[in-house]
Amino acid sequence: MKKSKVKIGERFVGDGEPVYIIAEIGINHNGSLEIAKKLIEGAVEAGCDAVKFQKRTPEICVPPDQWYNERETPWGVMSYIEYRHKVEFSEEEYAEINRYCKDKDIHWFASAWDEESVEFLEQFNPVAYKSASAVLTDENLLLKMREKGKPIFLSTGMSTIDQIERAIALIGHENLLIAQSTSSYPCKLKELNLRVIKSYKEKFSGIPIGYSGHETGLASTYAAVALGATFIERHITLDRAMWGSDQAASVEVQGFERLVRNIRDIENALGDGIKKVYDSEKEAIKKLRKITTP
After folding, report:
1. pTM of the model
2. Is 186 left (phi over 0), alpha (psi -120 to 50) or beta?
3. Which domains are present in the chain?
4. 198 to each of 139, 143, 193, 209, 256, how far by Cα in Å?
5. How does DSSP classify residue 3?
6. 143-155: per-residue pLDDT in tens?
């Protein structure tokens, strides 16, 4: 099988490379730059390679008939459109995020949910773009991201194989990474369908395949690595009990430290697949084998 690698910033992601670990901050910052910085710091301390945000233009992404629906929020009852603006960072706040991530030597990028958001993010020269599962069928948005010439992480939750193949045809194989994902929060274990990772690796040879998880717990993410995921994305939070739709499907900072440490252990344990006799076994051969064949 052809080895697949894509360069993200200064490093490669793909077969034969260390798993690229993304801490998805998303909107778990609840509109607070202070919380966002704490999450970035937590991701750095855990040993993650990148943090990821979500960027929307509310007037484009929220259907007009939902704008004035009232919603309970930490800031009181407000319209849905007000809430969506409340959790969006400004240009000045993203500039500070950009500076902070550079100081901490960690990659950052975002899911762009509309074309205006791509243009907004481009001013910060992110290392990549993420196409969220929800926008996989938005062909104009996919083309806008492709136009920027940066790597694209394509998440494939809530999508048929035909829709996925159409998106891949639009983006092209170059600079593309594909994630198996199931878009429910938190996701039931029986619906993670991790074997799709192997199916994707066979079907889309030459494209790095990874996993974007929304389940509770870490075991299934370790299984994704064992199945060949070349990158991993999990939501990060300061506290799973915090207000927000993604918090319950997130991993707290201490859990992320364990996640990264154990993924690195799994990588070491998987080896290269070539059967061999190790020097550490030779003493056991002398002691335990009565007959040795060539």
Report:
1. 0.94
2. beta
3. 5-288 (3.20.20.70)
4. 26, 27, 10, 9, 25
5. -
6. 999 999 999 999 9
